[in-house]
Design the sequence.
């Protein structure tokens, strides 16, 4: 079982607070990329390809680099990295989307050739229910009643080769094209989902792992 980790982003939304490349961010006693690599290995996935423009992210002999000479976007990066995939299917994930489940669940679910992990997002604000001019209830950061892309996927190698662009993001058109062809299945994930886009997100992730390690 092969996996591709997309880790070529610059993390501009973390600047100017932090200038460290996002995969090398410290989240506890390890970096973000080492956490994700170890998570995959824990579930028996030890053929891991890093799609990136940085060949100095992690010192691990089991990891293979797919180096982008120029920005290819997520779709182009996946297509290039697929050249190193040996199996007929591959697990694809964003380096900054942390989940807590067995990735083999999504791998086995992708019987139509493609599958995507979905979750209900949290409203980043408190929800206020009113009646006329009166406030009735406060609800802190409730789950919203729709699903979003969690940044974890499984694709057949043949689907990537035929449908993914040489350059460009897969989120903009590729996923919709697969959905139109009824080739993309959505797998509902109800567990904890941590993502790092802002400094506040990074602090939240660090606090979570600091607390969970002490328990």
Sequence:
């Amino acid at each position: 079982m092969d996996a591709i980790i997309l880790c070529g982003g610059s993390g501009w939304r973390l600047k100017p607070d932090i200038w460290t490349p996002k995969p090398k961010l410290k989240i506890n006693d390890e970096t973000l990329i080492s956490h994700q690599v170890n998570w995959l290995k824990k579930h028996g996935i030890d053929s891991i390809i890093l799609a990136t423009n940085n060949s100095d992210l992690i010192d691990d002999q089991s990891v293979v680099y797919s180096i982008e000479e120029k920005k290819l976007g997520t779709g182009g990066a996946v297509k290039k990295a697929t050249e190193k995939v040996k199996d007929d299917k591959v697990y694809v994930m964003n380096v900054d989307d942390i989940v807590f489940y067995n990735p083999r669940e999504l791998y086995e679910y992708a019987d139509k050739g493609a599958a995507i992990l979905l979750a209900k997002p949290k409203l980043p604000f408190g929800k206020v229910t009113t009646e006329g001019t009166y406030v009735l209830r406060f609800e802190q950061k409730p789950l919203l009643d729709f699903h979003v892309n969690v940044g974890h996927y499984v694709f057949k190698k043949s689907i990537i080769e035929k449908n993914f662009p040489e350059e460009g993001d897969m989120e903009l058109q590729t996923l919709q094209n697969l959905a139109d062809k009824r080739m993309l299945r959505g797998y509902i994930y109800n567990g904890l989902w941590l993502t790092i886009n802002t400094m506040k997100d990074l602090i939240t992730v660090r606090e979570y792992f600091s607390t969970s390690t002490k328990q």
